[in-house]
Write the structure tokens for this entry.
Amino acid sequence: MTSLRVMCVGLACVDIVSVCKNYPEEDSDQRVLDFYWQKGGNAANSSSVLSLLGAESEYLGSFANDNEMKFLHEDFSSMGVSTSHCRTYDSGFMTPTSIIIVNSQNGSRTILHASKNLPEVSLEDFKRINLSHYKWIHFEGRPSFNTPTHEIVRMLAHIDQHNNSRSESEQLQTSVELEKPARPELDQLLDKANYVFVSKEYSQNKGLTSKEEAVKAFIQKCRQGASVICAWGEDGAAAMDSQGQLVTSCCFPPDKLRDTLAAGDTFNAATIFALMEGKTLGEAITFGCKVAGAKCGIQGVRGLRDIKFS
């Protein structure tokens, strides 16, 4: 077990998953192969994977005081993830929910997400945390109707202020994930963190056609000393540091593809874990691809606890 402490900030929701023989036709009626609930949300998934890999992991987000909250709390606890700094909202608020259709033929997942009125983490919430207790804080870039991206900018600026008063060895690292392609407001986060994770979809929305092209383009917009990382599905991943050094990794597909849900969250978490342990950027994205590949061969992420990664 590593003694490094890491926090993931963002969404936790309930995933209601139906596994189908194939993707259903509109206005059709069919039985499913399997049905289950699981914890979802990018930050929630990444915090769980970090804990399963051996980090001291914490999730920071909002909870609604309803029946679904109990399910989420129990799931976090069972994976060893702390939620001690999360804020709970009482009557009138609802836990975000995703209805997910998994196609057993190819492992694809179609997500229908509902997030009605639960507030996101604010700067005021974040300021209650003692930053000196953490080695790394990762943010899921997620603007919403009641918490704009600027709030994440303010939290990252708060960390910069903390770091400015400390030696380099005492400073905590930051990372941010830019995933959703139709959210141009996320662009303002590109130069706010030490590590920037950009998705294939986010990159393609900018007209970029490969992982190498993506990291070369986005590194120009990152802060001095930062690195940009891009996973590209079956084509593996690439990363580039501020010196222009490009590193790549192939993917590591499982023998049988079972469940791709949370594969990207798993890649992000595993890459962060490797970087926290002092691995090079190239070693880290290779480890991220290995863990994400293994995850695609199992249902959910819990089974990662029992897999040995070299």
Observations:
- Helices lie at 42-53, 67-78, 123-126, 149-164, 200-205, 211-218, 263-276, 281-295.
